[in-house]
Automatic annotation (TrEMBL), chain B:
This is Sugar ABC transporter substrate-binding protein. Gene3D superfamilies: 3.40.50.2300. SUPFAM superfamilies: Periplasmic binding protein-like I. Belongs to the bacterial solute-binding protein 2 family. Keywords: Signal. The keyword Ribonucleoprotein does not apply. Its main location: other. Residues 1-27 form the signal peptide. It is found in: Cell envelope.
Amino acid sequence: MMDQARKQRFRYRFGMLGGSLNGMMLAARRGQAVIVTVFVFLALMWLNAGLSPYPLNYFDISFLASGGATTAIAAAGQSLVILSGGFDLSAGAVVSLVNAVLATSMDPAQEEASVLLWTLIGIGIGACVGAVNGFFVAVMRLQPIVVTLAVMFIVQGITLLVMASPGGFVSPSLGMAYLGDVIPGLLPAPVVLLLVVAVLWLWLKRTSFGVTLYAVGSDSEAAGTTGLHTKAVTFATYVLAGGLYGLAGVFVSAQTGAGDPLVGNSLLLPTFAAVVIGGTRLGGGKGGIVGPLFGAYVLMIVVNLLLSLNVSAYYSTIAESAVLMIAVLMGSLSRDSVLSKRLRDLKAGLGARRAGQLAGQRAREDRRLTFTAPGEDVPPSSFLQRHGPTLRHVLPSYICLLFVIIVSQVVLSNVFGNQRYWDSLLVLSSFLAILALGQGAVILTGGLDLSLPWCIALSGVMLTGLVGGQDIGLWIAIPIVLLVATTIGVLNGLGVVALGLSPIVVTLAMNGFLQGAALIWSDGSPAGFAPPSLRWLMTSKVMGFTPVTLFMVVFVAFAILLLNRTKFGRQVYAVGNSELAARLSGVPVGRVIVSVYVLSALCAALVGILLAGFSGQASLGMGDDYLLPSIAVVVVGGALITGGRGHYVGMLGGALLLTAMQMLLAGTSLPSAFRAVFFGVLILAAVVAIKE
Amino acid sequence: MLNLSYKGAVCAAAVALYSAVPTPGHAQEEPYDIYLSMSYSGNDWQAEASNMIKALAASSDYADKANLEVQVAGPNTQRQIQQINAMVQAGADAIVVYPISPTALNNVVRSACARGVEIIAYDGEITEPCAYNVTINQSEAGRKTAEWLVDQLDGEGDIILVNGVPGTSVDTARTQAAKEVFAQHDGINVIGEADGMWSQAVARTELNKLMSTRDWSDVDGLWMQVGCYTANAMQLESGIAPEDVAPCAGEGSNGGRIQMLPLGTEVDGAELPYAPFGAPRISYAAPPYSGAMAFKLAVDILEGKEVDKRTELPLPLITNETVQLCETGSWDEQKAGCNVFNPSLVSNPGWFASIFSEELPQLGLDAALEGQPEN
């Protein structure tokens, strides 16, 4: 009793001091990632200034500030969505749209357009797009990644309708306001803009909106049952994020003084990189937007650094990826981080082995508990009982597929009875179907593989380079390519398991490493051909069908067996449903996760090989068009992006559906802008239909 | 001593930084610092262009005059803006740019010009008036090739268009000009259109989609920015005899030009579809030597020579009448009129063959392939 009371008094007296000290420690721990980002940024700045032949002056700093601002503002928006546990692929497209709208609707005769008005218009456009995203995510409860992917296509199409090619006019008053100085010689305007964003965020974070946002991101269900307005907050998050992309679009317009309908499209991956460098956790609930603001500048200053260090052009993506990895690793480094845990585990494991205490070192004898035999009179469950839930997620993609094919028949005629149509559908969807196995397995465990594009390209380029155009060369080339892919997969998996980094970071960085590797290997221009047998497989006709279709039958059978009839398959689902439960049940979680990344890399390599056969040669950009579709087919096929649920048959349906939709649109005489809009609408319609 | 020279450097730097007026013309002992900011879109064109620039910079005519440093901006405009700015900071005398966007670079280019740095863009254009542009007339390319196709078809036929990257000014100019020509001929029907993204691989995928509900016998002609090589290869695969392939306008690739050579021409390392079969074709492409030309102009400008703000390169249009095989690919040989290279030398059919420039005798086939100058 006495003790309690003394403690209380003590707390009362020193509470303020102790509290604030504790608070500061806590804040420092919480903000470790942000602090590290700032530190990395300052270190890079210092290094850059040291390497530069001229002293850094105000002009340079001002220019650097404006150079990174667009990515920074867009990354702030992306960060909000990611905090809520979502994912926004429409960010870059919105930036382009706002730029196009401003550049086409500003009056060239009016030099002094109102900065406030046009800024609000830009933010408004972005917020509207965000509202569409928010509606489908929060109200319709669709998966953010597909919704924003569909919206991305729609917005890109609309942008091309607004502005077909670069041009237009953005009033110089906008440039003056956003690129000028608030205090000449001391404070550039972009810095103030970012400060305003940061201060607004720090205020927002403390409101009930901010608290709910973190709660939703940490555990949406728990937040809902606690009585928080999860729907409204999720919706508002997308609207706010959209507004920030809009602001980024206004900034680009000010910065460039004109319009370009493609200007924002390449911003998407850098915003993700900025967000993760800034310490915001993918999956939600942790982080903020101050870190990502600095993250964007880290990415920018690396460009300067590469120049100062005279890094060869081919190595630039490698250097950037290395910075990404290092920054994220440093941000997460602590005693509790996965890396230090793994190191401790390893040490403990080695110690146990030396002491002979490791479970695996015990004598091998059957220690299983004896269960009573199951009752013999249990009636076998009906087909529907056994497969009902699977069918519910798998069938919709096929129903949509049937619908699209019927529409194709009506619009294009000559579909049902046309063997060539079916052959084309099967051949063109084979690439996505193969990728769907790898990407699907990764997504089933709750991960994501962004290294596919350059894994495909590197495999294709290596294959054509190694075979020398001869069939005999395949015997050497294919094993080498598959071996390289296995290594890529193992490294991806180790990055996730051993370093404990988010799969997106690891695979995004890997994509950069592979891009560099492909460029160095091919010296910028891939040589060689696919050998005749590979070309035969992909382009010849046997009884009206391309031989690869037969290969696909075998592949699909293998994929279904692998995911549903093997121990490995069951372990994949177990890990996806709950990593902890799986671990406690004796599933070697780490090994399973590494294996799915290996599977994914092998599938990508196979696609690279087949694509080389399809085109007759390899090209460096050949994987670029397959990343987002590979994710889309998995989700459209009924899989959950957070893992644990999905069936390969559904993903196959997704691949067929997406390809059929593309073929339908290609067959129409619609301009490409409309095609993009329709494609987006169709994807949205498909996921809504699947949901119902 | 050391201190003094350091101070000198700083002074020189300060002068370079703050003098708004460029000081070209005066004889300079140090070589010029010329930077190259290229994009990288994943096709062979960029690699060739960069090889040719490197070759020119390494040639005996230029090795002592200029130092070249190459950086890649990828497809990201923001990065290119930052890169150009970093180059200005690093003390560039001139910057050669492959502009990712014709408009987005205007402000950074303007500020670079204000600091006395010359900006020379190749292939794509920069609309900022202080920049120099080296380019071809894209509209004329679209028009000329469309007119050729109409002539081939005698003004009547069903055709397929495969465009480039939608939303770029090059694609818009070419496609609009071509469509205007087709619209003037009632007999010409565009029965299918796709975005080929200037890639043989994408062209094949798109053509596959287009042809899934059609037969090649329904197609009388093709107008493509890249992909005639692939289109004809697909026709051969579907069983059409080499002498019956549809006329195709477009494609400056070596593979396409080899196909244009008359059937039976002796060619080293040929194998169908990378083989001569007299394919009816007009071949054009933006010439990859435009980057090297921009580098040459950069040196000219720095040396004080008079250079036009806009340099229009001659349109490299090759038809079946003018296509001619090179033996070695040297500049002299190309000057004599040859314009396509043996597959044994150029193993990649997608490689761009328009590498000859009257004004750049330093650059032959080796320059484009390996970055090796002629002298």
